[in-house]
Amino acid sequence: MSSRRSLIAIGDLSRDEITRMLDLAERFSEVMRRDIKKVPTLRGRTVINMFFEASTRTATSFELAGKRMSADVINVKGSGSSVEKGETLKDTVLTLNAYQPDILVVRHRAAGAVAAAARYTQAAVINAGDGKHEHPTQALLDLYTLRRATGRLDGLHVAFVGDVLHSRVARSGAIALATMGAKVSFVSPPTLLPREAEAGLGVSTSSDIRDIADADVVYALRMQHERMGNGGFVPSLREYATRYGIGHHRLRPGQLVMHAGPMNRGVEITDELADDPTALITTQVESGMVVRMAVMYDLLTESGARTPEAVAEAVAA
Ligand code: CP
Predict the structure, then answer these.
(1) Does 198 score more than 80 pLDDT?
(2) Would you tell me how many other CB atoms lie within 10 Å of the CB of residue 218?
(3) Does residue 226 have its Cβ closer than 6 Å to ligand 1?
(4) Domain range holding 168?
């Protein structure tokens, strides 16, 4: 089991710890404004990215984040690795652990797989998405994006719309937002609403799309076809798009729009809104890299290395 601090679930972080990571991400964003976007902060450290489920944003941003902090970064994917020959997750982690990595970033299609992987390594483990369970760094980058866009999180109302049932983005996002004092609602067809939504997560729920009117932020969720088996959750995608798809026609002036990507254009979000520069979708992607730099730095440093002086040194060229 890892003796280092890991990030498996967003609920493991207190409000103060989340604030610390968002503040740290602000500092790393300074690096991205320089001509040379690289610091020696993690020189001599090894980061192994293990992606056993498809990813564009999370995989590239973790790789870039590690490289921009001068870590040695290795990428292992399910396709092309010995996983294809039947090697188990346990044996894959034990094998990679032999290289004494400092961080393992793990994405897996099975809920709970990342926590299981953490039992077989001394490295800090970061959950890059495990099934429909959790996506903690997505939650952090969403908080970072919102804090920058609105200047606050406390009291903000975020409505997640669509396939909440299969969404690790909504689950981790709701927990993180509640921790920071925001109000969260889920607006979804009844078949795509988790039973524990109101009781377990403390969010309000509705199946009436008009209830997004009160929200400051409308967060469109991807219809996650790969987790729906034989389907039957909605009569048809066309009907779903008509009843729950987010477009300009549903928004009031000033409402912010988010989507974690990848998007099903014409289903949960209209083409026009997906391309609208006022939507925060591209900003979320930009936030991903600096937030992941902050998470890696934070997990590998002791509290003494998080003083203002130490952080200034960490972002110094
Ligand atoms: N938001 C997100 O996790 O995207 P990827 O699946 O492309 O990593």
Answers:
(1) no
(2) 26
(3) no
(4) 136-283
